[in-house]
Amino acid sequence: MLRQTRRKPEPYKTAPPGCSIGAVFETAAICGVPLFEPDARSLAAQLARHSEKLALLPKSVRTSNTVKAMSKFAFVFPGQGTHYVGMGMDLADHYAEAAAVFEQANEVMGMDILQLCRSGPESELVKTENAQPTIHTTTIALLKVVESHGFCAHVTAGFSLGEYAALVYAGVLQFEDSVKLVQRRGMFMQNAVPQGVGKMCWISGLDRPAVEQIVTQASDLGLIEFSNFNCPRQIIVAGYATAVERAAELANLRGASATTFLNVSGPFHTSLLLGAGQQRDLKVRCLSVENVETLEAFLREMDHAV
Questions:
Q1: What is the pTM of this model?
Q2: Starting at the edge strand that comes first in sequence, how are the strands of the sheet with 198-204 ordered?
Q3: Is 304 a catalytic residue?
Q4: Per-residue confidence (pLDDT) for residue 254, from 0 to 100
Q5: How far apart are the C-alpha atoms of 186 and 280, rounded to whole Å?
Q6: Could you give the CA distance from residue 140 to residue 112 in angstroms, rounded to a whole number?
Q7: Cα-flanking dihedrals φ and ψ of residue 73, to 5°?
Q8: Phi-psi region at 73: left, alpha or beta (left = phi > 0; alpha = psi -120 to 50)
Q9: What is the C-alpha separation between 209 and 116, in angstroms, rounded?
Q10: Is 219 noted as a catalytic residue in this protein?
């Protein structure tokens, strides 16, 4: 079972003792914040040990469908809310591959992405027009380091913003195009709903019907909608700040195990952002892409997600 917590954990440089890299990633996703900045060497070692253990299994077991599935890896890239001041610094300071990605981003963007990651401040980093390119650049930097250790994924996906990193990894978009695109995406989203007007909140421990009732009640204070269904008893709602704050109060009264406001600057994945999605589509269609069918499928999927 994935651990849930009400407080923001301290970042780890490597996985905690006795805890797999995968479990830490899953916990980070459910908390909406990074628990640690993965050290690529530690991650590579974890993957290598996993492969070695599989190789030692008897052939009859090793060739079973279950074990075949265990021998494949997926890279799932993070979305907004995972930023923090100092992210990516260990990578850039110790790995040439990561430093090169930050340098490329700086050149393409005409701004110091590395310095923004290193020093913030948080008030600037949280703005979606800054959070998106910094998270995206840090993600690709980590990816390049992991790749340099000889590991690749059979499948890739992403959480919202992370889908752009997945498109880069899949060879659909070039990094230099994607980093400019996610900054534009952030600008469109910020302009659609100014910072502080909207909020997002995850509600844990209540089922969908209960949260539906809460959303209906809170909507008296303004637009509020379902944003994400992470799992049956963890749901994210988003909309105007007053309505989302009321929803959190109602959820706590109903016995929610946790209600946490996401560290983002807007009500993402709601109808308030549809205009931003249309602006983004115009920019995407001007890019040079390697696989038009994949990109078209991505745009259809993201119509209501931005």
A1: 0.67
A2: 224-231, 234-240, 198-204, 258-261
A3: no
A4: 95
A5: 9
A6: 16
A7: -120, 150
A8: beta
A9: 42
A10: no
pLDDT at 37: 43
| Alpha-carbon 271 to chain mean position | 20
User: Residue 250's pLDDT is what?
Assistant: 97
Question: In 10 A of CB 89, how many CB atoms?
Answer: 17
3-state SS, residue 306: coil
Q: Between vectors from CA 31 to CA 30 and to CA 33, what angle results, nearest 5°?
A: 120
Per-residue confidence (pLDDT) for residue 76, from 0 to 100: 87
| Phi, psi (degrees; rounded to nearest 5) at 283 | -70, -40
Structure tokens that stand for 212 in this block: 């539906």
Token pair 């089922």 in the structure block, residue: 207
Let me know: does 79 contact 158? Beta carbons within 8 Å: yes
Structure tokens at 213: 């009732």
Residues in the chain with pLDDT values less than 70: 1-71, 275-306
Identify the pLDDT of residue 287: 54
Backbone angles phi, psi at 126, to 5 degrees: -75, -20
- What is the CA angle 119-124-127, rounded to 5? 135
Fill in the amino acid letter for 224: I
- Write down the catalytic residue from 83, 136, 160, 227: 160
